[in-house]
């Protein structure tokens, strides 16, 4: 049994999802008899530092800015506090999608053609002359993400508003195929999950959380060979980026069984609808066991 603080909420645009993740983690850890309380760092970590130093381990359930960008992890490292999840370097690397993609490319890992653009650069880019994806370089939960398959149906007003919020966005070629995700638990790749949006829809923010997206484990459209290759690839990226405890890598599998890596999440969603817990259940870890295992890993870290 350990004393644990779950950090959830924060100030990012993923705050509501974070609160749901935090509540699920707290309930799971309580079922394993840990002493748990949940705190919201929205008013700053310094205000919580005394509380954070009094427990055995911190379980961050903060998504997006302030949770996955390495700032929280750096704070905890500076104060010698043990915590669940990748360290500050790995977190910052995976959060900065351009740096992440450049690292993968340097290691021969296949990724979509990518440019970091402002609005004018986007309008002039040749990548925008064919189906494309547009998303924040440092965001998650599919917020301000645009999947454009038909160039005649571009929502220019919404795209311009997104650029006003972010100044620059990541512009990528749209790789056609089946999307799967592979989560890591420690150094163990969990079973792949196929993500099937509703017919005519995308895996956007609305469809990610409204229950209309099918999440298939095992996948139906991706053969076992490609699934195993994806697990090996996710494990390689987990190690390459310096991740520990957990991560989740999103991959497109084309009709020719080519694997294109999209991104790696260092604090994946931990709600009842989230992909890491679903993959863990398929591997034999229910939510309390998953969260308890993550706590045990964190207790073994050197601060």
Features of the shown structure:
single chain, 303 residues, alpha+beta, Rossmann fold, D-amino Acid Aminotransferase, Chain A, domain 1, Dna Ligase, domain 1, 6-stranded antiparallel β-sheet, 4-stranded antiparallel β-sheet, 11 helices, 13 strands, 20% strand
Your description of this structure?
The protein starts with a strand and ends with a helix. β8 and β9 (188-189) form a beta hairpin. The protein has 303 residues and is of the alpha+beta class. Strands 8, 9, 10, 11, 12 and 13 form a six-stranded antiparallel β-sheet that branches. The protein has three domains: 3-85 and 292-299, Rossmann fold (3-Layer(aba) Sandwich), CATH 3.40.50; 94-110 and 176-285, D-amino Acid Aminotransferase, Chain A, domain 1, CATH 3.30.470; 114-173, ATP-grasp fold, A domain (Dna Ligase, domain 1), CATH 3.30.1490. It has eleven helices and 13 strands. The mean pLDDT is 93.
């Amino acid at each position: 049994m350990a004393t644990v603080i779950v950090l959830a909420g924060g100030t990012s645009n993923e705050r509501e999802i974070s609160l749901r993740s935090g509540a699920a983690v707290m309930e799971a850890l309580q079922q394993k008899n840990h002493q748990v309380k949940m705190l919201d760092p929205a008013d700053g970590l310094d205000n919580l530092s005394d509380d954070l130093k009094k427990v055995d381990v911190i379980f961050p359930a903060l998504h997006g800015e302030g949770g996955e960008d390495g700032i929280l992890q750096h704070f905890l490292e500076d104060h010698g506090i043990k915590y669940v999840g990748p360290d500050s370097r790995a977190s910052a690397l995976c959060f900065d999608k351009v740096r992440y993609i450049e690292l993968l490319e340097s290691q021969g890992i296949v990724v979509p053609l990518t440019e970091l653009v402002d609005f004018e650069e986007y309008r002039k880019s040749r990548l925008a002359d064919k189906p494309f994806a547009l998303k924040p370089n440092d965001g998650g939960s599919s917020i301000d993400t645009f999947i454009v398959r038909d160039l005649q149906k571009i929502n220019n007003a919404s795209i311009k508003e997104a650029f006003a919020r972010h100044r620059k966005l990541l512009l990528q070629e749209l790789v056609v195929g089946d999307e799967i995700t592979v989560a890591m638990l420690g150094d163990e790749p969990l079973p792949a999950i196929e993500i099937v949006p509703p017919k005519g829809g995308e895996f956007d923010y609305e469809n990610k959380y409204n229950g209309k997206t099918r999440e298939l484990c095992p996948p139906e459209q991706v053969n076992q060979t490609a699934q195993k290759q994806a697990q090996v690839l996710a494990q390689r990226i987990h190690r390459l980026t310096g991740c520990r405890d957990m991560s989740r890598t999103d991959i497109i599998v084309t009709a020719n069984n080519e694997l294109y890596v999209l991104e790696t999440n260092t604090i994946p969603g931990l709600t009842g609808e989230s992909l890491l817990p679903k993959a863990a259940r398929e591997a034999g870890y229910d939510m309390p066991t998953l969260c308890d295992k993550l706590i045990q890993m964190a207790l073994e870290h050197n601060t």
